Amino acid sequence: MKLYGATVSWNVTRCVVALEEAGAEYQIVPIDFATAEHKSPDHLACNPFGQVPAFQDGDLHLWESRAICKYVARKHKPDLLREGNLKESAMMDVWLEVEANQYTAALNPILYQCLVSPMFGGTTDQKVVEENLEKLKKVLEVYEARLAKHKYLAGDFLSLADLNHVSVTLCLLATPHASLFDPYPHVKAWWDGLMARPSVQKVAALMKPSA
Ligand code: GS8
User: Fold this and answer.
1) N or C: which end of the chain has fewer CB within 10 A?
2) The pTM is what?
3) What is the number of other CB atoms lying within 10 angstroms of the CB of residue 60?
């Protein structure tokens, strides 16, 4: 299996977490944005939107990080998807959507302003950061209530829903807002548990979000 894209991208490292957790054999193939390699015909054949990540397993080409994560789990560690259990897999689907549409939707602009923009010589728009921090705090209140009742997001079992939060949260730790979880003890305990996983440790070592 080949994963195309640089590990500075949290969409790429979202897939690395799944690959590591699933114990899959894979290779990361860096794609150089500086030379617009992501818009080259070779890369467009892997991801027609000219973005990273892209993924290849034999003659199968995938893009969209969350679809790649699901494929990897389905192939190598299906328990992460709870597909044999209708209710558990439904709850996992709910929290996969929450990650994408609530958590990461609020976190993305913060990461862009605090990490990406300065990397390209830009400034941080504090208004955008503050607005999205407020959104994220409201999201975290829901997480706190959920995690007060269950060890993990979909229930009392680790699932892909938890793991898909890892890459963006690791990036959050590289911003001035790393203490955001402090008022939410159950969220903090959940995150500390994820951080202790060897897969997450490995990805944390790979990521240099502020470099
Ligand atoms: C988003 C991919 C994306 O935005 C996914 O895979 O989850 N929904 C998709 N990739 C960015 C890199 S930032 O992580 C990208 O490739 N941008 C370059 C471009 O759009 O030209």
Assistant:
1) C
2) 0.96
3) 9
